[in-house]
Amino acid sequence: MSRIIVRAIALLLFSGLSVADAVVAPEDINQRIDALDKPLYSPFIERYVLDDLKQLRTEMASQKSELIQQIVDRELTSVDRAVSYATDTITYFFYLIAGATSVLVLMGWSSIRDIRERVHSLADEEISKLVKEYEHRLYIIEQQLTQKTQHIEKNREEIEVNREVQSLWLRAAQDSNSSNKIAIYDQILKLRSDDCEALTYKADAVLELGEPQWATYLCHQALVIDPENCHAFYQLACAYTAMNQFDEAVRYLSETLSRTETYREDIARDPALKPLHVFMPFQNLLNPKHE
């Protein structure tokens, strides 16, 4: 419920709606937010995401402490049981010695000495077995603890990477200089080399610098990672339009629309595709009834 309230407040702040317009069902709030033309990049959203990440890190640290405490408790319980078992075993052996001594007292000191030595030998063997068994158990527990610690550390590193990537995306959204955006996208790709979104947005920034061939290379890289990436097809169409290869541009626009219709309005209004407006295949693509 708290997330829905935050989304409603974000809708008020960034979409220009009145309070009366925002008092709607949660499904309507989600639909309005999903229908926004651009992401809600703002310090408010960044703070919300960072708070969530901070809470997640706190929970992970708490889970780690609880896990260590449970393992230590298990170790102490195991040691207590081992000591108790060993004590009981030795006590039983002493009872056995006392009984054997009482029965064999008339047989002479030599026989009693032999029994005593044998009992001591058996006690040592039994204790050695117990020690080895519990050493093995403690080793297994140590291995499990090491694995859990590595898993927690891996999650912590992933959280740090997510936080840094989110910060870079916010910087890119707030920067209007194409060269600066490219540098930011390169930092994102350094952290996540398989980030298709960073590749396609970098291609968009490269197009603004008048480098369509570079943009096509970036888009093809994105399609190698995700062959169904609609944004990559759309950016390829823009790049081929800039190179006056209208047939290729229309082909990639067709690939885009075959996967989603959400780009149809952008195709009609995008200045980068304006040279295609007089190209008949482009007109037929947007208005199939004219064919």
Mind describing the biggest β-sheet?
A: none
- The percent of residues in helical segments reads over 70%
The helix tally amounts to: 12
Q: Sketch the topology as an H/E string, one letter per element.
A: HHHHHHHHHHHH
Q: What is the H level of CATH, i.e. the homologous superfamily of the largest domain? A: Tetratricopeptide repeat domain
Strand-residue fraction?
under 5%
CATH architecture of the largest domain: Alpha Horseshoe
Walk me through the structure.
It is rod-shaped, with a radius of gyration of 36 Å. It is built from twelve helices and no strands. The two termini are 50 Å apart. The longest helix is centred in the middle third of the chain and has 66 residues, at 109-174. It is 81% helix and 0% strand. The protein has three domains: 2-34, no CATH class; 68-171; 178-290, Tetratricopeptide repeat domain (Serine Threonine Protein Phosphatase 5, Tetratricopeptide repeat), CATH 1.25.40.10. With 291 residues, it is mainly α.
